């Protein structure tokens, strides 16, 4: 990443972007996760183009460790008086409702060289829906998962490829079909999920708007029919061997530092776009379709979210300079230079700037973000819940515990952790 930043700065210097009339030095105060991360990703590039604009970062990392709440974030914004605010998507709508952010529409409309029509319309519609038709923040990149599949294996066993908009139930059925077609070979996996069993369950639940605790973080909410429907196919797949997670994938031979899917023995996996980097030199044919969706929200997925939302604090006296920053990192120049990194760890919000690799990258863009669920627990509470409930799931698999008993036990375990 740092080498890429250095390259971009050199490009900016060579292109003559530094040949500007001298302007008064100013400092923009930025509420962001970490100083070094901000400068590496955004600050250094922008400063190379606008050397009169410096940054003072107000780090949020310590607050995230304790479990950042929306009230704490609002208080920080008002007490620290930043110019630029990085907004966690979880709190975006709440922050907007407090009238803390500047409406960016007038600046977007008055900027002749800012081509907003190049930004993915699904992301724009999502941002407008949060702001009741207005845009209060923009994100140059977004995170997205998709369903990766090994075309070579599907061809070998004569099974139809996955397609866009599949439900989780259909993905599990397809995993079972191709596993059976492979005659249950010991080194074959129908579906791999790079997380724990409960991590997978939580991701599936998010696509349906289902929580394991209530919105106040006071009561466990896992003993429900919704959770039963989520957990059933996971447990059945794990028992049948059609589903593997990072906990029991050891039988697949994987090169150190590589993702299991690159082994060529896995038919399907759901993962982020960064998997593409490892697959560019794969010795098998592969492609991508959209991440599994809930049939009730077939055009939206929790696997997609803007991950670098920046807005301008309404109390700032440097709104014009702050907009210049947001305009630049969301503009075509930044997108054009970013794609030179040939890195797919995140995807550009501007369409048409990713390097063509002959794969269905549109799968990352053809689906809209779904509401992000705020789980108001500390990091320690979340980690303990994930560890405890995951053990419960494996216990159910190994000891033939009924779903009714399992849900009741998980409910009690989560409630105990919350009450401490």
From TrEMBL:
Cite the Gene3D superfamilies for this sequence: Periplasmic binding protein-like II
The record's listing under PANTHER family reads: ARABINOSE-BINDING PROTEIN-RELATED, DIACETYLCHITOBIOSE BINDING PROTEIN DASA
- Official protein name in the record: Extracellular solute-binding protein
